[in-house]
Amino acid sequence: MTIFLFISVLLLTIVFSFVPERLLKPNVATLSSFNMLLHSLLVSLIFLILTLFVQRPIFSGIAILVFLFILVIVSNTKYKALREPMVFSDIAMFSQAFKHPRLYFPFLGLAPVILGPIIIIGLIYTVLTLEPALVFTWQRISATIVAILMLWFSIKKLALTPKLSLLPEQDNAQLGLFNTLWCYAFQANTKKHKQAVLETLKTSPFTKNNLSKQTNLSIQPNITVIQSESFFDARRLHPAIKSSILENFDHCKQQSISHGKLRIPAWGANTMRSEFSFLTGLPCSSMGFFQFYPYQYLSKMPLFTLASQLREQGYYCVCIHPHPASFFGRDRIFPQMGFDEFIDIESFDQSQTFGPYISDQAVTDKIIKTTKEKTDKPLFIFVITMENHGPLHLEKVKKEELATYYDDNENNNTVKTLDDLTVYLRHLKNADKMIQQLTTYYTKQKNKETLLCFYGDHVPSMPSVYANTEYTDDSSDYLIWSSVSQYNNESIDIDIESLAIQLS
User: Architecture of domain 233-502 in CATH?
Assistant: First the structure.
């Protein structure tokens, strides 16, 4: 009877486990024999492992089905917000979701966040209470472990078979979400892939072989790079948005060395992808499977970056980020990238917020303070702002502030109802103020040239805004400005991996 129950529940679990995949957006995988085999083996593996520990097959089956539905819900939510389905490296970020819930859970909506855990806990309690535990003899335990090992090696062999495009949407359409997650994970950890990534890292323009020789430290300019959270020229969205929103950005562009659109490897989030490409001078896509979360997988590999090159030239390299340094594992990887110091949220007065996060004004003050204190060497400051970080829809809009951001025209009434956009413009105006304050301060420092590079890591996540304005451009914007040099004022659109090269 025990074996019959065990096999029956396993077969039912496999059959019903194909249902969640039918709800996946935007694509549904074809039920090919390969897909069905791999999916069935994966479900069987998890079922056996769970049942071995809890000794309740019905509970194991329900747990697997709930887990698959959660995966699909999370993937669909991510696709709506970021135009990318779930990828295997997102699982490594789950712990961050619980440490920083405001950055993640609001995208799911209030009902799933509140009701989901209640339903799951209720199901677990009910099934564990009602379902008696099976009696596992040592012979059955041994047989289960052997079956688990056989399934594991079979799955690994199958998962290494498909040729993947590394375009998650396309691969999901070919294999399905569950299969794709496992295929990515297995193929990412092969020696062949890791060796290919290692060879690619050696092609960075900032390797020691490419190091430009500068010995006179007194004439080397200070360099400040602002990676402005979700910054882009939002006036491209709709003509109703006032040009004065970015008046300082416009003025600085007119005096810049270069400026233009910046092609970036992310939409709406995943700052570390743009950040990695900027600092290493390598396209994120060249990292293979590691491109989705490069900091997670490259912490033990040699990294050559703008910071490491500048440090070799005698610079003191500082990162300023008003958020915990542990986020994205920056505390582990930034020293490896060549930074001497990481100034995170612990060094800020946490009452200096604008909206939910530390303000751009507080970050500006910290930049100026650091510049005044670090005078014995040329200084490289890399800044990662937070003020404009979403979810934007949690912030409230006052009717009286609309006149600040939009032209008064009846034809503009529709765009004025997009609260996400109004909140975004509110913060964008502060990013624009940061440019004015820094350029004014650096211009007054007659004894030292400063290069300022200002760019956006990605466009913000505003799905309803883009749908209403039919906006599809994923470019952000950048400029490079000097406090003393002649201005070329060159307008050129570039890839983000090319941006830092102009500063080295």
Answer: 3-Layer(aba) Sandwich (3.40)
